[in-house]
Amino acid sequence: MQNTIKAPVSFSGVGLHSGVAAHATILPAPANRGIVFRRLDCDGGVCEIPARYDLVRQSPLCTLLQNAAGTSVSTVEHIMAALSGCGIHNAVIEVSGPEIPILDGSSAQFVRGILCSGVRRQDAPVRALRVLKPVEVIRGDSSARLVPHETLLIEFSIEFEDAAIGAQKKLLNMSNGSFVRELSTSRTFCRQADVDAMRANGLALGGSPGENAVVFDGDRVLSPGGLRQPDEPVRHKMLDALGDLALAGLPILGHYQGVRAGHALTNDLLHALFAQADAFDVVECDGDTAARLPGAGVHWDEIPDVA
């Protein structure tokens, strides 16, 4: 069965890039509605932006959606990961402006809000996108790949010069609440030199070490309290990947492999997948398959205490 939330849940904070107040409310939606963003400050025109891979526009450091009328919303990846990881298939997200609030830089507060609201089952079958053959995109030394698998696996490897990050690799099966337990609290991260450069160019104005990002400088972690997990950076990359893959519009049955990949490359991968009609099919999930989807059976006690 498809799922939506039982009652509206709201979030307030600042936009990572603009630094201005940002508010978002997740609302229940009927079956087969999918995930849709709705700009509340839209003065006429088309205010709704479906959460679809083909509406992604290139943007530094985040995922930005824009409809045909030019209305956009950015930094959607963390809330999309939370919805996918909690098994929510239908929701309308009302947004006060052009950005989703960054909160603590992870998906934890979104997950807490969704599970506090509760999940309502809907009288409609869940469909999933099953990967039938390998699809890969490569850009320099970065790559993203999908290969067939009976459930969603996310595998990611990163490598940074900063000794505090270094080389990290992780593989997780996203079924049985794995996202909530293993990834939801992992925060976005960057290097101090990147923060300085971004702010000099008017970006990341809402970023604050310890509040909504982990900042590294060589062998040091500058954020108060340090890391939530020793491999928090690669875990956050996996969180981002789940949020970006959710823009396929259906849960994915396949093994995602990212090597130094980012938002743009994962979106390129979805374009490559949908461009090949023999690379996927859409299946109606039976009970066993639905039980393996992200978010199936997740409950409050699975949220790590650190959040």
Keywords, separated by commas or semicolons:
globular; alpha+beta; Ribosomal Protein S5, domain 2; 307 residues; five-stranded mixed beta sheet; lpxc deacetylase, domain 1; seven-stranded mixed beta sheet; 2 domains; 20 strands; 7 helices; single chain
Describe this structure in words.
It contains seven helices and 20 strands. It has 307 residues and is an alpha+beta fold. The protein has two domains: 121 residues, 2-Layer Sandwich (Ribosomal Protein S5, domain 2), CATH 3.30.230; 176 residues, lpxc deacetylase, domain 2 (lpxc deacetylase, domain 1, 2-Layer Sandwich). Strands 11, 12, 13, 14, 15, 19 and 20 form a seven-stranded mixed sheet that branches. The protein has a five-stranded mixed sheet with strand order 2-3-9-4-5, with helices on one face. The protein has a three-stranded antiparallel sheet with strand order 6-7-8, with no helix packed on it. The two termini are 29 Å apart. The model has no long low-confidence stretch (mean pLDDT 92).
* Unreliable parts: none
Q: How many structural domains does the protein architecture include?
A: 2
Distance between the termini: 29 Å
The largest sheet, given as strand count, sense and whether it forms a barrel, is: 7 strands, mixed
Structural class: alpha+beta
Helix count from the secondary structure assignment: 7
Gyration radius from CA atoms, angstroms: 18 Å
User: Any idea of the CATH topology of the largest domain?
Assistant: lpxc deacetylase, domain 1
Order of helices and strands: EEEEEEEEHEHEEEEEEHEHEEHEHEH
Note the overall shape.
Answer: globular
The CATH architecture of the largest domain: 2-Layer Sandwich
**Percentage beta strand:** 25-35%
CATH class of the largest domain: Alpha Beta
Mean pLDDT over the residues: 92
Instruction: Give me the CATH superfamily of the largest domain.
Output: lpxc deacetylase, domain 2
The amount of helix comes to 10-25%
Tell me how many strands there are: 20
